[in-house]
Design goal:
two-stranded antiparallel sheet; three-stranded antiparallel beta sheet; 4 helices; single chain
Length: about 80
């Protein structure tokens, strides 16, 4: 197995953001099960998941999504 070449490394990093840590709208939508439109509307309305803005690019950190989801976890009592 060979080491990743420059092209592979460049593909895994977008403007300095590691693709394993940061998700774009479409990746975050897939990860959370929400629509891209919902994520964009939530940003516009200053709610939803925390995000990173770099120029016009928006990225979500997986750890922030996971933390936010765990804060809204509901564990029903057994009957």
């Amino acid at each position: 197995m060979s080491a990743p070449n420059e092209k592979t490394r460049a593909a895994s990093t977008v403007r300095g953001f590691s693709s394993s840590l940061y998700l774009n709208d479409h990746q975050a939508a897939e990860y959370t099960g929400l629509s891209v439109a919902t994520l964009r509307r939530d940003r516009f309305q200053k709610r939803g998941f925390p995000y990173v803005k770099f120029g016009r690019s928006v990225r979500y950190r997986r750890e922030d999504i996971d933390r936010e989801m765990s804060l809204h976890l509901i564990v029903p009592k057994s009957a």
